[in-house]
Amino acid sequence: MLSTASAAAVLVATRRNKGPTWAMAAMWLLCLLPLAVGMISYRFVSPSNLLPDALIAGSILCVAFGALVEHLFRGRYRSAPPDSVRADADFVAMRSLARGLWLIGMTGGACVILDFVVSGGSLLNLTELRDSFVTRETASVFARLGSVLTWACLFCYFFALVFRDRLRPLALLFFMAPIAAYLLGALLSAGRQAAFQVLIFTILGQVIYRLRNPGARSGRALLPVVAGLMIAYMGFIAVARNDNQISDIKAEVLERLFLFDTANWFEALLGLFGGGIRNVMVEAIVYFTSPIALFDRFLDIGLEGISSGAMNFPFVFRQLEPLTGIDVAQMYQWKVAALDAQGVIGVGWTTAISHIIMDFGFAEAGIALVVQGYLGAWAWRRALTGGDLVDCMLAALFTTAAVYLPLLPAFADTNLFLTTLACIAWRLFGPKTLRDAGEAVRI
């Protein structure tokens, strides 16, 4: 497969400095390899249709080209952790900001709980809970407030990860506490994205902590513990959210919905484990591979260039609907109906690339991916070369967006979008803590 080869080539080419482009290539390989080796195949995908594979390969190379342009203009990465004076100034400024965001995030978590109680939610049946959440026609005031406040939890958590060596144990727990509110929103809607995001940010927080503190050895147990908890949660949700009207066995439900076959050797391997492990493994493989298969069907529905940005930035377009006339929900429903007409699951993910194409068209999607690659490399450079916490947060956000490319658009998630917007606003209008500290040292 051309796309698999492209992802492998980019992974090797960017292995030295890692960053968003490397993370993107690694994620594409994770999603593509089960298809490439025949572990799973989808009945509606024609092997003779090479267009989806070529477009995915081109998308990977567009992001890599954007990063290459940044590299050619700015030169080689030279890691330069902030000195103690600059790091102290950054910590003081960011601690004040994190305290304010702590209140915002915890308020958002309280609103999520109140919405759950008011709407009569129950955790006894996660399938019904998820269906009621997705199909809800109107949102309560608590749901609306919670959706625009919980992003602050992510910033507090990242602050605690990066500055954990400067925080006392109680202060560390204080700033980490909002991440529980962040995950609560996922639990009370039987969702998994928040857990996936926490896993990504824990990994990136650990990486950036090591970049800023070369030789530091603290917190080694944090990543395995968080990763274990998040994977266990996602596995539990995967098994618990099941359509019993089709079958009590989750793998059979997925097969009916996504129309796939698994290789005999893979089934033999799964047979060594219990039914629960088999269900979780099949769910995980479908989770990562089905968007690529459904991208094949998306290319036949003729919706390119119709939504003008609404699919990637729905939060913005919901506010601007009276001015633009673009109904985000209608755009989504058009896509669902068109996929249903193709005989596949309409609500399935179709990769972030499909949303960019739906927003801007094919050629414009290539340009957008080049820009994304450039911005990701720019943000990663700032994090590597002694940038402040906001620079590091932007690097983490752009890396997350790169990781999400094989699945769905990252900034369609309100929390990720508002966190990015807040960081850009702080970068443009807030105090430049490290720059000011550096000037003070030179004086």
UniProtKB/TrEMBL annotation:
Record's keyword terms, sorted:
Membrane, Transmembrane, Transmembrane helix
Top-level taxon:
Bacteria
- Parts of the chain that traverse the membrane: 21-42, 54-73, 101-121, 141-163, 170-188, 194-209, 221-240
Q: Which protein are we looking at?
A: Oligosaccharide repeat unit polymerase
**Which organism's genome codes for this protein?**
Sphingomonas baiyangensis
